[in-house]
Amino acid sequence: MTTSTSLVYLIALPLAGAVILLLAGRRADKWGHLLATALSASSFGVGLYQLSQMLSRPTEERAVTQKLFTWISVGSFNIDAGILLDQLSICFVLLITGVGTLIHIYSISYMSHDENRRRFFAYLNLFIASMLLLVLGDSYLNLYVGWEGVGLASYLLIGFWNQKPAYATASKKAFVMNRIGDMGLSFAIMIAFATLGSVSFSGVEEASHTASQATLTAIGIMLLIAAAGKSAQFPLQAWLGDAMAGPTPVSALIHAATMVTAGVYLIVRSHFIFDAAPTAQLLVVLVGAVTLTFGALVGTAKDDIKKALAASTMSQIGYMILAAGLGPAGYAFAIMHLLTHGFFKAGMFLGAGSVMHGMNDQVNMRRYGALRKFMPITFATFGLGYLAIIGVPPFAGFYSKDAIIETAFNAGGIKGILLGSTALLGAAITAFYMTRVMVLTFTSPERWEKDQHPHESPWLMWLPMAILAIGSVSTGFLFTRGDSLVHWLSPVFGEHEAHEEHFLPVIVVSGLALTAVVIGVSIALVKYQFSDVDAEAPQNVSIFTRIARKDLLQDSFNESVFMRPGQALTRLLVKTDDKVIDGTVRLVGTTAIGTGSALRKTQTGFARSYAVLILIGAVALIAGIWVVTQ
Length: 630
What we know:
Elements: E1 2-3, H1 8-24, H2 32-55, E2 64-74, E3 77-85, H3 87-110, H4 117-136, H5 140-158, H6 165-196, H7 201-208, H8 213-230, H9 239-242, H10 248-257, H11 262-269, H12 271-275, H13 278-299, H14 305-325, H15 331-358, H16 376-390, H17 396-409, H18 413-443, H19 459-480, H20 484-493, H21 506-529, H22 543-549, H23 554-600, H24 607-629
Parallel strand pairs: 1-2
Antiparallel strand pairs: 2-3
Helix pairs in contact: 1-2, 1-4, 2-3, 2-4, 3-4, 3-10, 3-15, 3-19, 4-5, 5-6, 6-8, 8-11, 8-13, 10-15, 11-14, 13-14, 13-18, 14-15, 14-17, 14-18, 15-16, 15-17, 15-19, 15-20, 16-18, 16-19, 17-18, 17-19, 18-21
């Protein structure tokens, strides 16, 4: 591992943009968006330079570190603020800065009429800088700083239009649920330091070879809780749909390409913990399998185009978590799907924003229809992303998702059959609800209101969409050609011996996956393309549809199991504090005051009264002495 002196610019450039725009105030309104975009692009340029430098070195010397300063030095607790750039983190750096810059460019036009555009771009730069710190930190504590920075930036961006109470509530909900997950990360750091004596990745990995399985399982479970919060995985997934309240570029940046992938990064970065803790690894698999199914089912019933895509994101991140839980066989495929997903899902979110731009901010797909004639570029770019996510060859999702399905089947035994079947079911449902989105928006008969005049978006919006669409087409093939991504990441995860015997041959898995896609697409076409679609959501629907519309009752569950009992417990604690704790304190004071008031009555100021008391006291004293001496 070598050292570098230029890594800090990756983070410093967008961070400087955020600071400048926030401190400059209204004076930067005219040029703030240009500065923020330029600095994000510059960070991407630094990332490309670092990639070229990495490629010029031997494989064993490609990971580089940089110590910035000594952060904490208390007794045996010594932490440096350091940066680690290796084959894993460079993938995230290029995704964050590359896709992030495209979203900056898109936002120049999308947010052009917003009077607070400068502040919006400042928050975008702050988010980019925080996300880069998250993936570049060389220890769990450094990662934690970026982790919290991402949480702050997402809160600011989701609630950017907080003058609307619903939007402010959505940002608060995301913030609170992420804090629950963040407790898991903080506990993992504490356990690691208390038991392993280190919080750096290298130190924890080295100590994990001799640590007890109970310790590693505890750390692994805490890390999984953190990942579930940040990546909207079961049971901390309820915030993601509401987070669509933010401007659409925020959805593309946070909920497609970057923030929600942080949990996947945390798990694969901590692969040495999960490899040595089978129980924690099994829980990762279960969380991924449950969430990919959960998100897909929710997506089938959403009429809001952004919420349908949000449910899709939840499901696709579930695929990544599932792959990460499959151990060495799945780590690289989790990252592959993460990277391909970053392209096609960001492109579709930007496409949704383009549709909203042309439809007076209408988000109800039942009020769309036939937009392919009026928005041909949006239709084409969104369509390429659609083909990628449902897994049609040769588009990106075909390579990455099929690899996960194959790895799931190869887990072996009943476990492999269940996981592989779940992944196949998710593929079929994904094909259904994404075809539903495509048909309702672009190919079904028009259903919009007369005062709407759909039109194509300006070039600053469709150019980033076109570039992302190219990634939706090409990245899967590039990453799988000669197992390029697997070999690239092998220094991080270690060499993995491929299965000599597959539970199912690759061609069979691909055939099953394509069959699932055809079934899902066919059902959606029959239901929405070749049948009449109401402009209003029908109310006479099955109980499953009603439940799916309510996000499978996740909010109702949280309200019943956590919020209401929490409120009752809070009221009980307040009453206990008032009646018992404060009441005891008040009783002491009241007793003292009452005793003083009673004794005060004996102080009359009359000499005869005091003489009588002296006489009584003297008689009592003499009587007492007499009794004692008898």
